[in-house]
Amino acid sequence: MTTGPTGPGDPMRPAVAGNKTPGNSGAPPVILASGSTVRARLLKNAGLNFTVEVSAVDEDSIKQNMQADAAPAHEIAAALAEQKAQRVSRNHPEAYVIGADQILGLGDDGDTKIQMFDKPVGMAGARNHLQRLRGHEHRLFTAACICRNGQPVWQHLETPRLTMRDFSDAFLEDYLAQSGEKILNSVGAYLLEDRGAQLFSKIDGDYFSILGLPLLSLLAFLREHGIVDA
Length: 230
Hints:
single chain; Maf protein; eight-stranded mixed β-sheet; 7 helices
């Protein structure tokens, strides 16, 4: 994680986003403990008032330790989401802090042979990801957690399934050239809301969870607690 001078849109600077929900001026603050521009955009487009504070959790260390203990992908995703939310929540006990994580798994969860993907490194890494996923079904383990006073008060997991079609090498090269480095922010090297839709033959699951956040379930929790209007 790079630190240093930040601009108005930099995720490292806590910044208000979204629209103030009428009637909730006295509601506790909401913080997104993630630097993901996609998650921030989902919350903003839903009209939520929130700030961003990136959690300084050592994700690689947590993931490696849990993989060494043969933890399944869904448990790793849930643990990372909780750790992110808890870390920020300790500094803002009055706030509802949202943590989220997503792991791509090729194979059956719980199988020690499941292949878990990290975000690709460079366009060569993106090419390798897509070559491995081509023609196969994979799952996205999308976990979210809300903490308050340093304790989890809500947790949710979605596991959409996506089948990537057996596209040609020529299509792959054109896709990489047209999409550019923005796909490196996605664990699967695709943005479903963009040109990445052309990679798939079938999708089964919640659209928002594929993008990285189980938005509908999260909003339902916030409505129950008076953060957004019911």
